[in-house]
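Standup notes
- DV: blocked on the single-chain target, sequence here:
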Amino acid sequence: MRISTSSTSSCPVFFQADEDALHFDRALLEQRLPAGNLDLAHANDRVAEQYLATLNPDLVQDRVREILLDLLPSGEVSQNAVAGKLNKSVSSLQRQLKYEGLSYKQILEDTRQELASSFIREGRYSLAQIAYLLGFSDQANFSRAFKRWTGTTPGVFRDKLAGTSVSPPAGSGAATETSGPARSRPPVQR
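- DV (later): unblocked, structure below
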């Protein structure tokens, strides 16, 4: 017996069917996203592939890092979500990471720090895009975390890589970060 309802969607839904499936029009799936940036997506893939090449699949910590790469842009990087992706309980994940001498929080912070530095070196991302790719709620939170990791702001770090110096405004007596022209664009959607 098949039961159909369409009260919660604009298409029919059948219960107790022989298979579970969603059908999409191929032309719709092949359309470009309005805010998509193919160059940016390729650059992100390159950084992610380089990072993945350094991981050892036999270590739980490296499997966690690999999962974090997928989850970071969504912002859903809870220990529970990662444990679920590994088909482990949170306590089992914690125990295995402790055996390897690490905690989930350390791995999350280290992964974000390594990727942030790579993204800034790549030079193709605005700081707002990097914040998004690393799962931060906004650029300010990313900047605070980056300063905690490195002792400097991401803008100063980028300027040092570019060989430029940061100078304080006349008479202020304090150094300020220069982030160049406004580069804020909407995050890449895939």
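- Follow-up: The beta strands are 3-5, 13-15.
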